[in-house]
Design brief:
Blueprint (H helix, E strand, L loop, with lengths): L5 E3 L11 H6 L5 H8 L5 E5 L7 H6 L3 E6 L2 H4 L6 E4 L11 E6 L9 H14 E10 L11 E4 L5 E11 L2 E9 L4 E9 L3 H10 L2 E6 L6 E6 H7 L3
Parallel strand pairs: 2-3, 2-5, 3-4, 5-6
Antiparallel strand pairs: 1-10, 6-12, 7-8, 8-9, 9-10, 11-12
């Protein structure tokens, strides 16, 4: 297990504490709809951190061509109908570009700042001219509105139990997922980023915010800055 990360519950647990069986049960929610509304129909999508395909499968059903990337072979074994690539996001270099690159699941808040920088560079490296990067970031009160819980209509409960500082602006976050027949927990490291810090991190990777896609600012569409400049003859 990666240092600072832990997971408990039935089935395989990935190095960052994610339970494969748990993520196979979680619904996609409105995330595929947010993505679909923000990008051209039939676009090619590089999905970074696809997991078991929670968003991959709905995107495929909507007619997108998806390449799913995850570091867990156990996760990728659950993906159906998409090209899959197993490897660390921050090290990825496929030598090709895509209309859309997605970085969901709050991965931009990686506790290790160098990992975050690597992930954003991967996004910038793989987005085609005229394309975009869609990033999911934490809500403003993610680390402070605690403890909190949400009962999903499908019958399970999600609790964010705590977010304890461990130094250098990083918190150790503990989440619980309670189903009628099983309970999973996950502990992971998360670096809280203000809007300004988030936009600065994008800028370091050669990206800028094009639009905040949701009223809460959690979903963001970004574009490559250098390619914009080139197109304008700057």
């Amino acid at each position: 297990m990666r240092e600072g990360y832990e997971g408990t519950g039935p089935g395989a647990i990935t190095p960052d504490g994610c339970a494969v069986e748990l993520y196979s049960r979680l619904p996609a929610g409105d995330e595929p709809d947010v993505i679909t509304a923000a990008v051209p129909p039939g676009a090619s999508i590089l999905e970074l951190g696809s997991g078991v395909g929670r968003m991959t499968h709905p995107l495929l059903e909507r007619g997108f061509a998806v390449t799913a990337v995850d570091e867990s072979p156990d996760m990728l074994a659950r993906v159906r109908g998409a090209r899959t690539i197993c490897g660390a996001i921050e090290d990825l270099d496929l030598g090709e570009t895509f209309d859309v690159v997605t970085l969901a699941s709050f991965l931009v808040h990686a506790g290790d700042a160098e990992v975050r920088r690597g992930m954003l560079r991967t996004c910038a490296r793989h987005v085609a001219d005229g394309g975009c990067v869609l990033i999911q970031r934490e809500g403003a009160d993610y680390h402070t509105d605690l403890p909190r819980e949400r009962v999903d209509p499908s019958g399970f409960t999600v609790r964010i139990v705590s977010a304890d500082p461990v130094g250098d602006g990083v918190d150790s976050v503990r989440a619980e997922y309670e189903f009628p027949d099983a309970v999973w927990t996950q502990t992971f490291l998360s670096r809280s980023l203000t809007k300004e810090q988030f936009e600065e991190a994008l800028g370091e990777a050669g990206l800028r915010v094009d639009k905040y896609l949701t009223p809460d600012g959690i979903w963001v569409r970004a574009v490559r800055v250098d390619r914009e400049a080139g197109e304008q003859g700057v």
